[in-house]
Amino acid sequence: MSSRPNPVQWVRYAYGAKLPDSKREWVRNDLTGPMATPRHLIRTQFAFSPLYLALFFAFDGAVWIRALMVLLAVLLALIFSAAYMAQNRVVRMRKHGLGHSPLTQRQRVQADAAKLRYDEVYVSRRA
Predict the structure, then answer these.
(1) Residue 35 Ramachandran class (φ > 0 left, ψ -120 to 50 alpha, else beta)
(2) What pTM was estimated for this model as a whole?
(3) Distance between CA atoms of 84 and 99, rounded to whole angstroms?
(4) pLDDT, tens digit, for every residue of 10-56?
(5) Coil, strand, or helix at residue 62?
(6) What residue ranges do the domains of the chain occupy?
(7) How far apart are CA 21 and CA 10, in angstroms?
C-alpha cells in the first residue's frame, strides 16, 4: 500500500483536494477499506472544526450555552455527513480516478454474495 499523506496533504484532502497519484491506493483504502465510515465521519468533523470554534468563541454568553450551540452543530454535521456519505465517496473516488461505486469493500463482498445466492435460486430455475 502507498504511504500515508503528510499532515498538510491530509488537511487538504479533508477539505476536498486531490492527493498525488502515488497516494491512490491509500485513498482507495481510506474510502472503501475497513473503518471507512468512521474515517469519513472524523474527516468531516475535522472539516467543520473552524465553524465549531467560531460558534464557541464568537458569541457572548454562558459557556454552557455556547457549548450547546457547538453540540447542535456537531449533531447536524454528523447527520448530514452520514446522509451524504455515499455521494461524497463517489466524488472523491472519481477525483482520484478510482471509479464511481459508492460501496465499501465489505459492502461489495456482501453484494457479490447476494448476487450469487440470487443466481443459484432464480437463474438455475429458468435454465
Answers:
(1) left
(2) 0.79
(3) 18
(4) 999 999 999 999 999 999 999 988 899 999 999 999 999 999 999 99
(5) coil
(6) 7-102
(7) 14
